[in-house]
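Sorry, explain these tokens?

___
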Amino acid sequence: MVKNLIYDHLSNVLSGVPQGAVLGPILFLVHINDISENITSNIRVFADDCLCYREIDSLEDCDILQQDINKLSNWAQAWGMRFQHVKCNMMTLSRKNYSIRFQYTLLDTPLEFFQSIKYLGVHISNNLTWNKHIEETCNKA
């Protein structure tokens, strides 16, 4: 009797976990567990942030990074997810006077080049100085 009662009330769950549920973050981590497979660049994932980077010494390195961005985009589409274009950007970290410039794209949309990016609460500048972070911290005070 109980068995029939349970099966009578089955319905398809299309997506989602109630906000604030303990199970939500665990299920999300299980869902994205394979995001770094077949990626040759470095990848860092924290909560719902994904950072892909590599040392660039030649145009070949730029091509490899672009291929990895394409793989990440394909992975997202395959798993019903998407990267927000407005939140995806790129930055070159270097103290050199010259660095290789390359126009990276995400789904044929050029990624915006930033001089400074806030990552996990820290402002990282492309010239590796702390000026922007100190300025923002002082402005908050």
Q: What stands out?
A: The mean pLDDT is 86. The CA atoms of residues 41 and 54 lie 5 Å apart. The first helix runs from residue 2 to 8.
